[in-house]
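Re: [help] complex structure
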Amino acid sequence: MMENQDYLDIKGRVINIQRYCGEDGPGTRTTVFVKGCSLRCKWCSNPESIKPKPELDFNKKVCKGAAECGICLKEPFPQGAFYVPDGEDDLVVPNWDLANSCTEELASLCPTGAIGMFGKVMTAREVLDEVLKDESMYRNTGGGVTISGGECLLQPDFTAAILRGAQESGIHTAIETAGNVPWEFMEKVLQYVNLMLHDNKLMNPERHKKWTGVDNKRILENFQKAYQTFPHVEFITRTPLIPGINANEEHIRAVLEFIKPYKNVIDYELLPYHRFGLGKYEFLGKVYELKDFTSPTPEMLKQFRAMIDDAFGRTTV
Amino acid sequence: MNTKKRVAIALGAGYTPGINSIIMGVAISAHNMGWEVVGIRDGFEGLLFPEKYPNKGLIDLSPDSINKLNPLGSDAMGTAASVDPFNVRTTNEYGMIEEEDMSDTLLANLKKENIDGVIAIMMGRGLSILHKLNLKGMKSVCIPRTIENDMAATSVAFGFNTSLSFSIEMLDRARQAAISSKKIGVVEVLGSQAGWLALQSGIAVLADAVVMPEFPCDVKALAAHLKTKITPEHPHAIVVVAEGSTFTNLPGTTKIDNDDIKKALSPLANEDDSEFVIDKSGKAAKVLSMALQQLLADEVYPLVLGPWSRGGDATAVDRQLGLAYGAASAKAFEQEKFSTMAAFVGSHIEFVSLIEVLNKARTVKADNGFLNVARALGIYTGA
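Output below.
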């Protein structure tokens, strides 16, 4: 037991704490999604995690309409921020450009909860308390806690504090990162990490910039430094596989070549592009820019996974 | 009293044919009042990042340069993908991407360039952005432009006639193809929330049915109507569908429950992964043609006009409208009718309060005259 846990007083921005996850590391895990990302990937399925500050969301399914409620149609809400469009019902919809100026305090005036905020400020201690609820499950399944995002390394002190607390309780720790942060941020967190899951979205710098907003020079440098500086940390690299963007043999080969010299990179996973986050774009009043892309076919996945198995000396099933 | 002013023209996101005619209308009218007119490059980008552009992000719209403009085109000022100075994507000192509120920079640079106000050619979200800038003290008059004609208060927005003319031409061609191949063509036209383009073009080409966002389409009822139209002597049909249309009574649809997968991959995911959510352009034609195919013996095929309708040269009507909107807006600026939008009402142009129109859409009502025309011609509308 730690004598001094003042470091857990640090605050951070959290979107969601999800228990019983099976995707983000070994065993059954709790995944903490933090808010704020330093990339703008056009295929992002977690748009609520992009902006660092809490932001408005609107759930039209619980709105009771102008006649029964209508609070958001009057002051103190900004004029025009919410309105009733022509139609059969009198349900309210937001004008996102005007409604986004609503504060958390203003949003709380909505009696139905239709107007809410994505993201809340929590202390590392509060997060850890949630994580520790499933301590026995982690031990039974070999699971632990994963900090995901957004980009968890944008809040390095907060992320490090949660992971440090978890490790001091004997819990396996993992992070998911895209790596676009100053090296100092990554270094600070990796001290408390058992497993780092990280993306290799595109290996070509220009194409990386086109699809994510920045080139990959610093990202790749960070990963190489991480492999070398933290030999006891395990790394799994991942590619969100999107036909037309990176679902090709050339990319898979380039990633395999990149990780080849490092024994602590234990696997390369492919994440088939999916569109499950699309509904959330509407929830947030954002525009999804990649709407005409399709998921990779099973045959495509099988072919690329066979390449990876071959590189790792495994037999493809 | 006529005080000399310096006015800037700003152009919202998206392409509409013939914008140059609006620019000419504003500039010539303003020059006649002794004012100076400039254009802001690429939406507001020219004044947000003046260092990236020649002439500090401004375009000379003097009488000499105006004389060289082609009134059919839209190439005078450039466009931006987004015209939201409240959310400008930038890279911070740590090399990370973030959105920055640069509205104060825009207002400061307007002042620095001695620009008294802005005549903004906008649609959609652009109206809300303009309203926010007005609240911060910017003087503006808005000119409506949308090829879907769905902006409230005005009976005709700039760009609609050009798109309508093109759609009619394409539908005529689709009809010829349907006749020669003895098939049913389902042609998707633009119109995410209003069916004006579908309705008016459908009437013009004597389509067999028109489907609009305002009236959810009962697919089985539509199929029953088409069966009455398709005969051995008339073995073809044309259905015009607006892209924002919705459908009821779709045959053979099933829902796959994959909530657990969704939550694992994307927390808080709340909607289906289906074609109804994703492929906006072409979705309506695809869904409707597949549904009709299951209900009809004849072959049904989808066609999508989509973005083709946004290009080309302006029609005579839009050329006149552009000049009229431009000239009237310069006059409104002189009369200090700020925070307003030009609207074509009856046979003249009025200026309506921007806040009164920005959350409204001009949609096809059940008692609209065009619907009566369609009914009289035997065109199915479902209304």
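The longest strand of chain B covers residues 6-11.
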